[in-house]
Amino acid sequence: MAKQLGFYFDQTLCTGCKACQVACKDKNDLPVGVTWRRVAEYSGGTWRQDGDTFTPNVFTYYTSISCNHCDDPQCVKVCPTTAMHKDEHGIVTIDDGKCVGCRYCEWACPYGAPQYDKDAGVMTKCDLCIDRVNAGEQPACVAACPSRALEFGEIDELRAKYGDTAAIEPLPDPAMTRPNLVITPHRDAQPTGHGTGAIGNPEEI
Amino acid sequence: MNVHELPLVAFTILAQMSVGSFVILGLVQLSLVRKHGQEAVDKLSGPALYAIGPAIVLGLIASMFHLGNPMNALNAINHLGSSWLSREIFFGSAFAGLGAVFAVVEWRRWLTPLLRQVLAGVTALVGLALVLSMSMVYMLPSVPAWNHWATPVTFFTTTFLLGALAIGAAFVVVYTVRKRKHADVDEATGALLRTSLRRIAASAIVLLGIEFVVLPTYALDLATGDVHAQASAATLMTAGGAVLLTRLALVFLGAGLLGFFLYRFAFRGKERHLVYLATSAFVLVLASETIGRMLFYSSFDRIGI
User: Which of A8, A11, A4 is nearest to A161 (CA)?
Assistant: First the structure.
C-alpha cells in the first residue's frame, strides 16, 4: 500500500475567496447542490468592557474542507453495500456501480464529504483528484488557491512539517474519524467543543 | 415536520408493529392455550398471523422508496460485518421470509406442533434482532439526538405497544366477523378474547409508563447537551411543542385512558363496547407513534459541517 495521502490547510492565509471550491466544482463537473470542497465561515464575538464603555470584540475565520480520507472513515464503516471503500492509496472512494443511494454515509460523516447526486441516485465524493495526482499534478483545489493555503501530500510528511492539529471549530473532534488533515489555526481559532461562534454561511456548506 | 423520510417512517413503524404482533401472538399461544384450549386460540390468532405478512412486506416496499438507486438493492447486505444497516436489511428480509414459511406451515399443519413452535420461536428472535439492528442504525456518533439509549428503548417500546394493541384490535375484529358471518365462536373463544384484552390493556398501560419516563429524561439530556443536541431539542419543540403534545395526548388517550377502560371492563363489558375500545386504542396509538417517529427524523442535527 502506498503512503496515506492527506490535506494541509493554513487558516492564517485563507481569505475565504472560495477559488478551491470553484476549481473542484469545475474539474469534477459537479451538478447544482453537490460541492465536494466547501469553505465554512465561522464567526463569533463578545463585548469587552472598558470602564463604562462596551466595545465589540469579534472574529471570523475560514476553513476549507473536503474529504479527509480518514483512517477510521465512518462512511465506510456504515455503508451497507461496501460501495464506500478505502483504496490502495488510502483514498476513500465510492463505487457508484454498487451504491444504492440510501444516503446513510451522509448522516454518518461529520465533514459532509459524501454528497448525493439526485439525478444519478447515488452518492459522490472527493477522490483527491487521483487522475491529476497520478499525472504528477496537484489536486484542482490545491492548485487553484491564490494564497497557497492548501497543500496535499503524504500525511506523515505534512504532520512532520506542520504539526498535528485538526480539532478546530466548526470541525468535529478528530477522534471520531481520525482525519488525514492538518490545520495551522487562525489566531482566533476556537478549539472543537469550546466554540462560541456559529457558521455564517450554512447554506453554502 | 420531516416529510422527506416518510418511507423510513412507514418502514420502521410497520416493521416494528409486525415484530411486536408476532411476539405477542407467541405469548398468547404460550400462556393462554392451557386455560382456553388450542382451538379457541387458533380461531382468533390465525387471521391475525396472516395479517402480519402484508404489514412487513408493505414496510419493506416502503423502505425501497428511500433508495436513490433501488437497482442495486441486493448489494445492501454486503457489509454485515460492519454496517448495522446491512444487518437491519438482512434481519428484515429474514423475518419476512421465516414468517411466511411459518404462516404456510401453520396453515397446512405441516411438521409437528413442536417443530412449528421452534420455527415460530426462531422467527420471533430474528424479529427482535431486526428491532435491535434498526435502533443501532441510528446510534451514529455524529448525531447526538439519535446516539442515545432512548433510541433502542423507544424502538422496543413502540414494538410491543403497537404489537399488543394491533393484536387486541385484530382479535376483536376476528371475533366479531366470526360471530356474525360464521357463528362458530363458543364460550371458550369469548373467554379467551376477554383474558387477552385484559392482559393487552395492562401491557399497554405499563409501556405507556415507560414512554412517559423515557421522554422527559431524553429531552432534558438533549437540552443540556452540546449545541447539536440542543438544536435537536429545539426541533422537538417546533411550533411550541404542538406536534409533540399531540403525540403525547394521543398515546395517553389510546394506551392510558382507553387502556384503563379496556382493563376495567374486559370481563364484564358488552362485547360491542370492547370492539370500540380495542380498535380506537390501536388507531390512536398508531397515529401517536407515527407522529413520534416523524419527530425522531426531524430531530436530526449532525456534528461538524
Answer: A8
Chain A partners within 8 Å of B134 (Cβ): none
Give percent of chain B with pLDDT exceeding 70: 99
pLDDT at A1 over 60: no
Q: Which residues of chain A make contact with B73, given a CB cutoff of 8 A? A: 100
CATH of B6-298, one of 1.20.120, 1.20.1630, 1.10.3470, 1.10.600: 1.20.1630
What confidence tens digit (pLDDT) does each residue in B114-160 have?
Answer: 999 999 999 999 999 999 999 999 999 999 999 999 999 999 999 99
Domain ranges of chain B: 6-298
A145-171 per-position pLDDT tens digit: 999 999 999 999 999 999 999 999 999
Tell me the shortest Cα–Cα distance from A39 to chain B, in angstroms: 10
- Cα angle vertex A91, ends A74, A112, to 5°? 45
Q: Chain A within 8 Å of B10 (Cβ-Cβ)?
A: no
- pLDDT, tens only, B238-285: 888 999 999 999 999 999 999 999 999 999 999 999 999 999 999 999
B142: nearest CB among A81, A110, A118:
A110
* CB within 8 Å of chain B, chain A residues 122-181: 122, 170-172, 176
Cα angle: B143, vertex B145, B149; to 5 degrees: 105
Which domains does chain A possess?
5-204 (3.30.70.20)
Amino acid type, A187: R
Task: Report the Cα B157 to chain-centroid distance in Å.
Answer: 8
CA distance B296 to chain A (A): 14
Say how far apart CA A201 and CA B135 lie, in whole Å.
33
- Residue B144's alpha-carbon distances to A63, A110, B9, B217, in angstroms, are 23, 12, 19, 15
HSE-up of residue A38 (Cα within 13 Å, Cβ side): 25
Residues of A in contact with B72 (CB under 8 A): 81, 83, 97-101
Long-range contacts of A157-164 (CB under 8 A, 24+ apart): A158/A6, A158/A7, A158/A8, A158/A182, A161/A8, A162/A8
User: What is the residue-wise DSSP string for A144-201?
Assistant: H-TT--EEEEEHHHHHHHH-----BTTSPPGGGT--SEEEE--TT--BTT----EES-
Contacts B70 to A, Cβ<8 Å: 100
- Partner A contacted by B69 (CB < 8 A): yes
Contacts of B89 in chain A (CB under 8 A): 80
- In chain A, the residue whose alpha carbon lies closest to the alpha carbon of B66 is A102
Q: How far is B139 from chain A (nearest CA, A)?
A: 10
